[in-house]
Amino acid sequence: MQIRRTPLSGDQPPTYRWLPSPGELAVKVLSLGHDADIDGAHEAHSHDFPGVAYFAADGGIMRVGKQVRHVEAGDLFVIAPGDVTGKADSDDLVDARGWGVFFTADALGPETPGAHLAWRTHPLLFPFVHGGARNALRLKVPVPDRDDWITRIHALQDELTHRREGFREAVSAHLVLLLVGVSRLAADVVGDLRENAEPLLAEVFDVIERRYPEPLSLREVAAAVRISPGHLTSTVRRRTGRTVQEWITERRMVQARRLLAVTELPVSDIGRQVGFPDAGYFARTFGKVHGMSPTRWRAVNR
Question: Phi, psi at residue 95, to the nearest 5°?
């Protein structure tokens, strides 16, 4: 699991980006409590991938945005890409008993389009569309269902730990069941988001998905969704923590990594296929995002 820290300008916190290696199953379960691997204080930050945090007992605090929330049994925090997690101290969750489950859309299967963009349109990922606008969504798991949630997370963790034959299919199945549970708990919130926010975001990401292999600018995306570039920029940044151009680049980098991993195509050909006619500009952009050249990335990850 390779996490890359991307600092932002001004008073914006950095964004942590998950760059799965070829063949990696992009799902991670972390313990949240006295046995968690937390060393010292952690800076305020956001992720470009979704996750949930579930707590089975009272205890500890969660810092989301500028709020400090005392953890209660049955709390389920839905953490969208762009949500800001406040600066954490090592003893924030020392009395808690919980788990964090983080993933990328790739884990839902190869047919999921657009990897990091797919959580915007996949029906099970709809609770994660609120990113950046209203801090992490806090839901409450009913008392009769709480043991089932623990069992579900433990089963997912067990498959990831022991990696028995068929574990990839098992992990995907457990993750889908987990997200079904999240979607059912968030039904009212999701309905509100679908009515008031998602149409524009869905349209923006649909344009990116269809047109990323060709030259594509902010102005062209804005024209396609029939709003001004300025309004589009502020809306997408506010709700996702990233700009339209950053999302275009991210979509291109997802496809570039796939082609580097599974084909022998020359780097220049891959660049052209993902919207970079200039091979040098593609190599510079890839290096800025990944910290190494496309050729080096291909060699390291093979």
Answer: -100, 5
